[in-house]
């Protein structure tokens, strides 16, 4: 298959998506760009509450407003049932759910959602990309094609795989920010109010600005360090990975999808902490923020309230098993986790098998869901927290 999208167009699209991490109000415009790139008529971003069968978030582009309301009011149970049934059977949430492939013609013919919401708009096929999935909720982007555009093809699936890491990184950063919009021109002032650590850097990793949380981490021997005014991590390998991600952000943000969605900053002797690197060189919003930077590094660390820590206590996981679980929850592959902790991949696989045996699950997707069940639905705040 040839190039699915020009490098320039892909970069512009990724830039629009990353802008949404700082300003969720830009999602509708970004979704319109995504739909256009995929040659689709409609696009939606939804966060579904599986216990109450409702949308917690429902942003869309191209949808007729009345039909979007009808979808939210009447058809969430049907949508959730089909997607969760399929997702439960997948070894990985990286696969795309495509209506024309994964639903039978008989089902499509009798579906009330199809009849009442899709047919009136001429939508004949939809591809769903999963951004996150837990026992309580899942987030996904749905892209629908009109009859004149035909069914979803391999080109759209390949493009989806290119964009999925960037979409997930955007959602992860938004979660660290508690989905706050950072607006106007002075980003540094806004960042100081956030509880997660944020460091703005130049292309060499030089520190241009660190918010209060990041400064505290660096003063107190936390997961990040100020090494002669350059950003460093707790281990040499993590520092190299950070520098590589920052260099990619400066040079070619489209390739950031090749990096892990989260960079583990610590070794086994410290509580796990992870970084997400947001490129700052393109995008309408980020290039207007001050101070000028090529990357924003968002640092979140786990604690005793994290899902992995609670699973470890509940199922008597060893410290090594808990570290593997933390890495998987943060988005790293088993191979990447093994490399980071300096163990053989077969050893990491043995740890994972032990985790499966202790928790009673047999797939990584089930393990992640179990872990996320135990995470507090909102971040607790102490007096004085922003």
From TrEMBL:
<protein>
    <recommendedName>
        <fullName>HTH luxR-type domain-containing protein</fullName>
    </recommendedName>
</protein>
<dbReference type="Pfam" id="PF00196">
    <property type="entry name" value="GerE"/>
</dbReference>
<dbReference type="InterPro" id="IPR016032">
    <property type="entry name" value="Sig_transdc_resp-reg_C-effctor"/>
</dbReference>
<feature type="domain" description="HTH luxR-type">
    <location>
        <begin position="314"/>
        <end position="371"/>
    </location>
</feature>
<dbReference type="InterPro" id="IPR036388">
    <property type="entry name" value="WH-like_DNA-bd_sf"/>
</dbReference>
<dbReference type="InterPro" id="IPR000792">
    <property type="entry name" value="Tscrpt_reg_LuxR_C"/>
</dbReference>
């Amino acid at each position: 298959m040839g190039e699915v999208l020009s490098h320039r167009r892909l970069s512009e699209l990724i830039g629009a998506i990353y802008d949404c991490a700082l300003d969720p109000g830009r999602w509708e415009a970004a979704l319109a760009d995504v739909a256009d790139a995929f040659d689709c008529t409609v696009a939606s971003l939804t966060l579904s509450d599986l216990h109450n069968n409702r949308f917690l978030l429902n942003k869309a582009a191209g949808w007729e407003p009345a039909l979007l309301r009808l979808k939210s009011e009447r058809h969430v149970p049907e949508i959730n049932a089909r997607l969760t049934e399929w997702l439960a059977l997948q070894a990985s949430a990286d696969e795309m759910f495509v209506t024309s492939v994964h639903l039978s013609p008989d089902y499509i013919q009798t579906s009330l959602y199809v009849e009442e919401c899709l047919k009136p708009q001429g939508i004949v096929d939809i591809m769903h990309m999963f951004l996150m999935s837990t026992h309580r909720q899942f987030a996904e982007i749905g892209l629908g094609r009109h009859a004149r555009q035909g069914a979803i093809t391999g080109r759209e699936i390949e493009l989806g795989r290119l964009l999925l890491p960037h979409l997930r990184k955007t959602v992860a950063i938004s979660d660290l920010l508690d989905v706050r919009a950072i607006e106007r021109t002075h980003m540094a002032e806004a960042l100081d109010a956030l509880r997660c650590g944020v460091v703005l850097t130049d292309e060499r990793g030089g520190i241009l600005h660190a918010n209060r949380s990041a400064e505290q981490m660096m003063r107190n021997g936390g997961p990040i360090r100020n090494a002669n005014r350059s950003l460093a991590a707790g281990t040499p390998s993590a520092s190299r990975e950070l520098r590589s991600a920052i260099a990619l952000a400066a040079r070619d943000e489209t390739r950031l999808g090749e990096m892990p969605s989260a960079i583990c900053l610590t070794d086994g002797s410290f509580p796990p902490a992870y970084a997400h690197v947001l490129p700052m060189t393109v995008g309408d919003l980020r290039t207007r923020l001050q101070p000028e930077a090529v990357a924003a590094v968002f640092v979140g660390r786990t604690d005793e309230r994290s899902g992995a820590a609670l699973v470890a206590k509940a199922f008597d996981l060893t410290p090594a098993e808990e570290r593997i679980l933390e890495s998987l929850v943060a988005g790293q592959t088993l191979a990447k986790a093994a490399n980071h902790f300096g163990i053989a991949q077969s050893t990491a696989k043995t740890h994972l098998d032990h985790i499966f045996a202790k928790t009673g699950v047999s797939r990584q997707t089930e393990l992640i869901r179990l872990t996320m069940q135990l995470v507090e639905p909102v971040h607790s705040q102490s007096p004085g927290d922003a």
